[in-house]
Design brief:
It is a single chain. With about 450 residues, the chain is α+β, with helices and mostly antiparallel strands. The protein has 3 domains: about 230 residues, Leucine-rich Repeat Variant (Alpha Horseshoe); about 110 residues, Immunoglobulin-like (Sandwich), CATH 2.60.40.1220; about 100 residues, Immunoglobulin-like (Sandwich). The protein is about 25% helix and about 20% strand. Helix 5 runs parallel beside helix 7 and helix 6 runs antiparallel to helix 7.
Length: about 450
């Protein structure tokens, strides 16, 4: 595709302008420095460049996937009306393809629809919003500048950063996240339409809108990018649990404990929470969860003696523990046991998954080295995870990934050596992913055996 360029802002503007190609650019994985020379990035501050590069790499597949209107050989002119129609007819993340396709061809006809997506005040998934903001910066229509200025304080981090980047691309000016400075500059330059300084309420949640919390979150993310580890930056953006009471995995909890406490490393949305679980492993509650502070949430409970409990802080189907910026915490399984005599017919041992069979048996000698898989069977249906623990020469060489043959039987494909001693952990203190369907982990169990000097062929 021929690269098109747009000279942006009116001639009356006195500031030096950037020349920006109106086409999407994605750095090659093998050329980490290529993006620095691309004209799209020359207008940006170091932090903005880092964020733009991270986005182009992190969302590479989404940004490069354009709706294939009228077949793969269709020209941009043929595709444009179809993409414009899709903006009207699609919703949610289905809009990503036409948004990025229209950005790639620099479609000025798309500007009104893209701007409507960018400034929509619905509090929802913001991917289409920040992609629309990015697209507006690539297309190069300066009439959107006043609206983009107000997105500099949006509660979504991606939207805030892409508002900065698009404003820099459109104007050639580096004013960072200071929306008031941007507004003054635009009006002093005679920008049209003029900027109106009345603050837009993007959210009803005061924590999301807190400028100090937004700045702290943004700085933390950029620091992660500057470390050269995009994974660290991803993790830096996620809320982390720094305290659980009772602690995770402990076996000596006082049954008179009346509340479970989770504390995060940053301020959270105090309007939501997800204490996940069910069945006998989930503690009986005595009231609704409550936020004691912006970082500490409490679940009132009534525990029983000699019981095993299992729940999760967030889970795949419910992620309402979110930071003030709206970033969901990763699901965190949480288990503990109480002390004391059993107060009912159900004991801790009843609730904990039990191994009922292993092949080979623990402590076996003269195991056929031709055995091709190690098998464990539990006394109840289990979840999809597993923890086959061990390392070094005592851990068998594996020939494939572990898999569940039935909801109770898990298999580890192996290649054993003759006359060799092996030691495996079925769960271990640092990994307890053999869990039943209620989330209760099995106690760590060692499995040891020794192989015979020769194979009998029966192990196959």
């Amino acid at each position: 595709m021929r690269m098109r360029y747009a000279i942006i802002l009116a001639a009356a503007m006195t500031t030096a302008l950037c020349t920006v190609p109106a086409t999407a650019y994605t750095p090659d994985a093998e050329d980490d420095d290529a993006w620095r020379m691309d004209p799209q990035y020359t207008c940006l501050t170091d932090a903005q460049r880092l964020y733009a590069q991270w986005t182009e790499q992190h969302f590479r597949q989404v940004l490069n996937r354009s709706a294939d209107a009228n077949g793969p050989q269709a020209t941009p002119t043929e595709r444009e009306p179809v993409w414009l129609q899709m903006l009207d007819g699609l919703k949610g993340r289905d809009l990503c393809e036409p948004i990025n396709g229209l950005a790639a061809i620099g479609s000025r006809d798309a500007v009104p629809q893209l701007l409507a997506i960018a400034v929509d005040r619905t509090e929802e998934d913001n991917r289409t919003r920040w992609m629309a903001v990015r697209a507006l910066g690539l297309i190069g229509d300066e009439s959107v500048v006043p609206d983009l200025i107000h997105l500099l304080y949006h509660y979504n981090q991606n939207t805030r950063f892409w508002a900065q980047i698009s404003l820099a691309r459109l104007t050639g000016v580096r004013l960072g996240p200071d929306w008031q400075a941007w507004g003054r500059w635009w009006n002093e330059q005679g920008g049209n339409p003029p900027f109106h300084a009345e603050r837009v309420q993007w959210t009803t949640n005061p924590q999301w809108a807190d400028p100090a919390l937004q700045e702290e979150s943004d700085q933390r993310f950029i620091e992660g990018l500057r470390s050269g580890d995009s994974g660290a930056a991803d993790q830096a953006s996620l809320p982390r649990i720094i305290r659980l009471e009772p602690a995770d995995g402990v076996n000596d909890v006082d049954p008179l404990t009346t509340e479970l406490v989770v504390e995060f490393d940053r301020d959270m949305q105090t309007g939501g929470y997800s204490w996940c679980g069910g069945g006998p492993a989930f503690p009986q509650t005595t009231g609704k969860p409550q936020w004691r502070s912006p970082r500490i949430c409490v679940l009132p409970v009534q525990l029983e003696p000699h019981r095993a409990y299992a729940l999760s802080i967030n889970c795949p189907s419910a992620r309402n523990f979110r930071s003030a910026d709206g970033v969901a915490a990763e699901p965190h399984p949480y288990t503990f046991r109480t002390t004391g005599p059993a107060s009912s017919g159900v004991t801790a041992d009843d609730l904990v998954p039990q191994l009922v069979r292993t092949v080979p048996e623990d402590g076996a000698v003269d195991v056929d080295p031709g055995l091709m898989e190690i098998t464990v069977e539990f006394d109840r249906d289990m979840g999809p995870g597993f923890s086959w623990c061990g390392a070094g020469p005592s851990f068998p060489a594996t020939t494939d990934r572990p898999h569940w043959r039935t909801p109770r039987i898990c298999v580890l494909p192996v290649q054993l050596e003759p006359d060799h001693s092996y030691a495996i952990g079925i769960n271990c203190p640092s990994a307890r992913n053999f869990r039943d369907s209620d989330g209760v982990p099995a106690d760590p169990v060692p499995l040891t055996f020794h192989t015979a000097a020769e194979s009998t062929g029966k192990g196959r």
